[in-house]
Every structure is written in structure tokens, then in C-alpha cells.
Amino acid sequence: MSDENQAILAANQAFYRAFEKRDIVALDGILSKGINTVCIHPGRDAIRGFDKIRNSWDLIFKNTDYIEIDLDVITAEINGDIGYVVVVENFRQVNRGRRIKAESIATNIFEIMGGNWYLIHHHGSPLIK
Fold first, then answer.
1. Pair 88, 125: CB distance under 8 Å
2. pTM for this one?
3. Any idea what DSSP says for residue 35?
4. How far does Cα 58 stand from its chain's mean position?
5. Pair 57, 27: CB distance under 8 Å
6. Contacts by residues 96-100 (CB-CB < 8 Å, ≥ 24 positions apart)
7. Per-residue pLDDT tens for 44-87?
8. Rounded to 5 degrees, what angle do the CA atoms 94, 51, 120 make?
């Protein structure tokens, strides 16, 4: 595996670590501050721009008591300054005392800026089997 692929997988892992820990400050360092940044939570409309995306994550974090995410990486590809990681997200979480198991497929697109990979697009879709 190339150093570039290891770097984008590390950025992807940092995103999910912040997600699991419900750490909005850590997420701030991962999300791109660009106005074209997009996030699509499963079953939701597209959210554009850092502030709106950050607020959506903050709301998720505040309404989640516990979350554990196991990832199955399908692929990680890089082309120039853009790279993407496609994963299956296996969730176990507790929301207001209710235990939930869910599975989603997600595409995370990163852009390298100043030597760091920043998340410019997250799109999660529920998997129904």
C-alpha cells in the first residue's frame, strides 16, 4: 500500500474516531472549511458549508449516548489532490436509552491541502438486507 493510501486511510480513521467519541472539536480539524463541502446523512438531504455541516454533527453527537462503529473498507483511491474511501459502517449505538444496530455504506471524499487530507464530502446510505 502506498504512503498516499495510508495517509487517506488515516484521515478516514480519524473521522470515524471523532464520530465514535462524539468529538466536535476533533471533527473541526477533519472537515474542510470550504463553502462547497457537502454532507449527506442517511435518509437526509444534502447539507452544504462547514457551519451547517458542523451543526448537523453536533446535533447527532448531542442526541447519541453511545456509538461504536466497525468499518469494512471497500476501496481507497487517490487521483491528484482528491481521494475517496468507500466503507460499510456497522453501527451499534444507544440513543436516549434505545439500542440500535444499523449498517450503512458511505463514501468519504477528501482533498489534500497544505499536506493534510480534509473531508470535503460524506455521503452515508442505509443498507437494507
1. no
2. 0.93
3. T
4. 13
5. yes
6. 96/63, 96/65, 97/65
7. 999 999 999 999 999 999 999 999 999 999 999 999 999 999 99
8. 85
d(CA 121, CA 31): 9
94 grid coordinates = 444507544
Residue 76 identity (one-letter amino acid): A
Q: Evaluate whether 64 touches 31 at the Cβ level (below 8 Å).
A: no
DSSP string across 41-97? -TTS--EESHHHHHHHHHHHHHT-SEEEEEEEEEEEEEETTEEEEEEEEEEEEEETT
For residue 31, the 8-state DSSP code is B
Q: Helix (H, G, I), strand (E, B), or coil: what is residue 24? A: helix
Closest CA to 69 of 121, 10, 18, 110: 18
Instruction: Give me 55's grid cell.
Output: 451543526
**Residue 46: partners with Cβ closer than 8 Å, 6 or more residues away:** 38, 39, 40
pLDDT tens per residue, range 12-40: 999 999 999 999 999 999 999 988 999 99
- Placement of cell 482528491 in the chain: 82
